[in-house]
Amino acid sequence: MTVSVGVIGVGMIGKDHIRRLTTVLAGAAVVAVTDVNAEEAATVAAGLPGAIAHPTGQDVISDPAVDAVVVCSWGPTHEEYVLAAIAAGKPVFCEKPLATTEEACRRILDAESAFGRRLVQVGYMRRYDASYRALKAAVDSGEIGTPLMMHCTHRNPSVPGHYTKDMAITDTAVHEIDMVRWMFGEEIVATTVLTPRKSRLGGELQDPLLLLLEMEGGALIDVEISVNIRYGYDIRGEVVGEEGTAALGESNPIVVRKNNMYSGRVPQDWRERFLRAYDVEFQEWIDAVRDGGEFGPSAWDGYAAAVVSDAAVRSLFGGDGRVEVKLGDKPSLYDATT
Ligand code: NAI
Ligand code: ISE
């Protein structure tokens, strides 16, 4: 069976996911698209044999030809489409963030719990990256002993004009917030944001910033977020254990040695760095939709990331210093997920 997918939002990542669903992966077809930019949606549909452009996301979701929905519109619009997909009983892959507030994520948890079966997967692709998976395997195997700390770096060469101050947390650091919950298999209990001297390249943004995360088992995580670093897209992570350390390797395919120097490539952006991770993420999602299998990062994971990022935003802007994270009760539907 081919899974017929409807895509809401055909901007940068929407187009990239359509490309992988239609030309890279097996078992899926994109049959419907939409975008508030109707002209763009029509252009994208015209390039997809048999696909139509609908006026709204609701039309995509209710289209009987659509088996499953992919949401790639702006964050504040995610809640509406995820709730509509749950109401229609259709699996929905929602790009991060699941929704932009804790309350909106709670409404999604409530709706999915009432439905009684998981339909939602959130686009936290680091969990599918070969290097992050190898790092987690090293931690889980016990070879570096009990993990005590993790040092993370998340550097973007630049960000678009609409990128607001809070997005360093809600749009960028949210990847590490999800990743460390998965890496350590436990929740985050408190967060503090520290602000070094501002880069003149960041304009109005507080750039860079340092995010501290306290895990429930006592491990401490630091994350450098820089979003105007210019030289490339640089993602790093090192877990410090009692008996050793394990770090993500460099991802450049070749190293050039010349004139007493050596050099390798730093990826241009997230599309290049996580190319294969997105492919694996979507292949596993298509297979799960087709076979009725388990989905990846859940609405609970999306909710937990939202609660931690709300707390970090309070620490950053509210002058609150260290902010405790209170997740509240976890609905039983999500017992198996972290
Ligand atoms: P973008 O601005 O390039 O594309 C978003 C598209 O959604 C635009 O074409 C816009 O017109 C459309 N749109 C906005 N509201 C809509 C609505 N109500 N209905 C239909 N279409 C609507 O943004 P980008 O970079 O593609 O990001 C989209 C989402 O993907 C964001 O949530 C972002 O956080 C996430 N993202 C995830 C990445 C990852 O690494 N997993 C990487 C980049 C983005
Ligand atoms: C973007 O939305 C992403 O998700 C990228 O992975 C991240 O590196 C970037 O900072 C975000 O703006």
Give the spatial strand order of the biggest sheet: 12-11-7-10-9-8-15
Cofactors and ligands = 1,4-dihydronicotinamide adenine dinucleotide, (2R,3S,4s,5R,6S)-2,3,4,5,6-pentahydroxycyclohexanone
Rg on CA atoms, Å? 20 Å
Structural class, by secondary structure, is alpha/beta
Overall strand count:
15
| Share of helical residues | 25-40%
For CATH, the homologous superfamily of the largest domain is named as: Dihydrodipicolinate Reductase, domain 2
Please give a quick description of this structure.
The chain has 338 residues and is of the alpha/beta class. Helices cover 36% and strands 22% of the residues. (2R,3S,4s,5R,6S)-2,3,4,5,6-pentahydroxycyclohexanone (ISE) binds next to helix 7.
Topology at a glance:
Blueprint: E1 3-8, H1 12-24, E2 28-34, H2 38-46, E3 52-53, H3 57-62, E4 68-71, H4 78-88, E5 92-94, H5 102-115, E6 120-122, H6 130-141, E7 147-155, H7 167-184, E8 188-194, E9 209-215, E10 220-226, E11 234-241, E12 245-247, E13 255-258, E14 261-264, H8 270-273, H9 275-291, H10 299-317, E15 323-324
Parallel strand pairs: 1-2, 1-4, 2-3, 4-5, 5-6, 7-10
Antiparallel strand pairs: 7-11, 8-9, 8-15, 9-10, 11-12, 13-14
Helix pairs in contact: 1-9, 4-5, 5-10, 7-10
Describe this structure in words.
The protein is of the alpha/beta class and 338 residues long. It has 2 domains: 120 residues, Rossmann fold, CATH 3.40.50; 169 residues, 2-Layer Sandwich (Dihydrodipicolinate Reductase, domain 2), CATH 3.30.360. The strands form 3 sheets. It has a 7-stranded mixed β-sheet, with helices on one face. The chain has a 6-stranded parallel β-sheet with strand order 3-2-1-4-5-6, with helices on both faces. A hairpin with a 4-residue loop joins strand 9 and strand 10. It binds 1,4-dihydronicotinamide adenine dinucleotide (NAI) and (2R,3S,4s,5R,6S)-2,3,4,5,6-pentahydroxycyclohexanone (ISE). The site of 1,4-dihydronicotinamide adenine dinucleotide has 24 residues, from helix 1.
